[in-house]
Amino acid sequence: MMHPVSRLLIANPWATGVDEDRLTAVRAALPEDTELALTTTAGDATELAREAAGRVDVLYVFGGDGTYNEVLNGIDAETPLGLIPGGGASVLPRALGLPSDAVSAAQRLGRGAGLRRISVGRVNGRRFGFACGIGLDAEIVRAVDLLGRRSDGRRPSNLVFAWTGVRTVARHRFKLDPALDVVGHGRAAFALVSNGPAFSYAGRLALRPAPHARFEGGIDLVAPARLRARKIPRFVWYALGRGDRARARDLVYVHDADRLEIVCDLPLPLEVDGEDLGDVENAVFEAERDAVTVLV
User: Fold this and answer.
1) Phi/psi of residue 216, each to 5°?
2) Residue 227: which residues within 8 A CB-CB, separation 6 or more?
3) For residue 143, what pLDDT band results from cuts at 50, 70 and 90?
4) Do the beta carbons of residue 111 and residue 84 sit within 8 Å?
5) pLDDT tens-digit profile of 78-98?
6) Does the structure show a pLDDT above 80 at 1?
7) Domains of the chain listed by start with CATH number
8) Residue 291 in contact with residue 119, Cβ under 8 Å?
9) pTM of this prediction?
10) From CA 101, how far away is CA 25, in angstroms rounded?
């Protein structure tokens, strides 16, 4: 049982951008009465958030997207969350408009940031903050995970992630046929589901396959009908937020949905916020509106 505190900082010491010096600097930027809780294993952040919900005035989180995801699966709607970038991409805080530098973000959050109520997505009961994928995207996440951690315990770099993506597509000979059914909308090779405008980042460049998705709205789905080498430039164009998805004949596109269902021909990998959840044959996506309060 957590003893009463007014502010709590959950930090993942194994996140790519978290080390002793940065943690010290982040703590110095937050209010003096902020207590620290370090995670030690998978699932810790969810349990810590569940204990803190309704018991603290503010819950700060210093880690990567996996840590934020765990917290989202334990927090209530009213406890304000301050997300401090500490991962390789830190998509969620960046997509919310916070500085990518951890200390700058902590300073902004610590001196009284505004409140914003956002939606979260949910797939088969698991919450996600910004994105979820079935098929190719999740296959790339799994391939990166199989590379293991670096000698310092961190995950591979963004460059390794990008190269792994190229190799994964090459293994399919740059050809993917329809492998799943977006119920009521059509067949597709793989599917990307967004809860906000950024699906990921390549360095400073935001990848926005669903640029009209909003954190205050429902979920968006973008699912290429099939992949061929000659179509890759067009899909890159879509990934950069360009093009008219609503009229595209080579995409299944759904905007601002409350519920979507995908049925796979065979079990396909599923990822949420960059975390591999294993293979699924059926996935139910739901928008949980007004679910979480964040500091911005």
Assistant:
1) -90, 0
2) 136, 169, 172, 174, 175, 176, 189, 190, 235
3) very high
4) no
5) 999 999 999 989 999 999 999
6) no
7) 7-113 (3.40.50.10330), 131-288 (2.60.200.40)
8) yes
9) 0.94
10) 11
